[in-house]
């Protein structure tokens, strides 16, 4: 039997205690690692659950929106579109753009009207003043919008003695202008109506001259100065409005006395029909 010394025995006991402590530390580390893994998995599952719950909630909210929309549509009847314009749909505090209110009928109509009024056509009738009626004076001015609706139609009281009413062409008679509107009042109304708008007309420079007003060249569309139209209708010469209207629209105008409303509408119809190519040509000339 081997006899161990006291020091050797103590050393063995010390090594045994260290081994047990090291084993306990390894066990503790494994336990902590497992707990961390468990917490991570729980957190991941919880996140997925939250996402699913959020999706379910979102789906429910959307279902509720559709249900409300259907109910409101039945209740509002023919006014459903206008009713929806006053509704707001939100999901989790964020506005859902897909379900945002559509413009009401009145809003759409206002925008459409504003777009139509961006284009105006003007025509003036003139009488003669001065020696043998050789000078022009404004007697009537008419302005229509893109659809041909009348925005302004005024007879103008003469500022000078009329020496030639030019009735066979102008259609103006003494009683038309004797009680007409003041020239400066009509001038102000015309300025306000055409300001910042595309002005359509035939020989529009002459109309602006008798009104004693100016309009920016980039905003003028003159059927008498549009070269492709002049080449098509009159071999490059300046065609009459009557000739252009017959060639482009197949309509006959100015068969007798002229009518400024009819002439303004004809100019606008011509522009509307040629507007795509006209604007393309204008941009090319501008550049």
Automatic annotation (TrEMBL):
SMART domains on file: EXOIII
Presence of keyword Nuclease: yes
Domain Exonuclease: 118-280
Region (Disordered): 1-62
GO molecular function: 3'-5' exonuclease activity; nucleic acid binding
Cellular component, GO, one term: nucleus
Bias kind Basic and acidic residues: ranges: 1-21
Protein's GO biological process: rRNA processing
Compartments (UniProt record): Nucleus
UniProt keyword Disulfide bond, yes or no: no
Keywords: Exonuclease, Hydrolase, Nuclease, Nucleus
Family as reported in the entry's similarity comment: Belongs to the REXO4 family.
Protein name: RNA exonuclease 4
Organism: Glossina morsitans morsitans
């Amino acid at each position: 039997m081997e006899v161990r010394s006291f020091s050797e025995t103590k050393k063995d006991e010390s090594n045994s205690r260290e081994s047990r402590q090291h084993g306990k530390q390894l066990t503790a580390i494994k336990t902590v690692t497992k707990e961390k893994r468990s917490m991570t998995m729980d957190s991941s599952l919880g996140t997925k659950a939250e996402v699913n719950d959020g999706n379910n909630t979102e789906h429910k909210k959307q279902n509720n929106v559709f249900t409300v929309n259907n109910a409101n549509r039945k209740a509002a009847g023919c006014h459903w579109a206008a009713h929806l314009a006053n509704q707001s749909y939100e999901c989790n505090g964020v506005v859902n753009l897909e379900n945002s209110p559509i413009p009401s009928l009145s809003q759409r109509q206002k925008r459409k009207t504003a777009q139509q009024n961006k284009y105006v056509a003007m025509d003036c009738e003139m009488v003669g003043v001065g020696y043998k009626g050789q000078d022009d004076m404004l007697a009537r001015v008419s302005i229509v919008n893109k659809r041909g609706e009348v925005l302004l139609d005024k007879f103008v009281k003469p500022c000078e003695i009329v020496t030639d009413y030019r009735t066979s062409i102008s259609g103006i008679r003494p009683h038309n202008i004797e009680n007409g509107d003041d020239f400066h009042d009509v001038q102000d109304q015309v300025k306000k109506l055409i300001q910042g708008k595309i002005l359509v007309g035939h020989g529009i420079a002459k109309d602006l001259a008798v009104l004693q007003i100016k309009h920016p060249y980039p905003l003028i569309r003159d059927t008498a100065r549009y070269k492709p139209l002049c080449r098509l209708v009159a071999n490059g010469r300046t065609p009459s409005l009557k000739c252009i209207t017959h060639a482009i629209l197949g309509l006959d105008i100015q068969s007798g006395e002229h009518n400024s409303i009819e002439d303004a509408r004809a100019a606008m119809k011509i522009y509307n029909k040629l507007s795509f190519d006209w604007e393309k040509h204008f941009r090319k000339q501008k550049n």
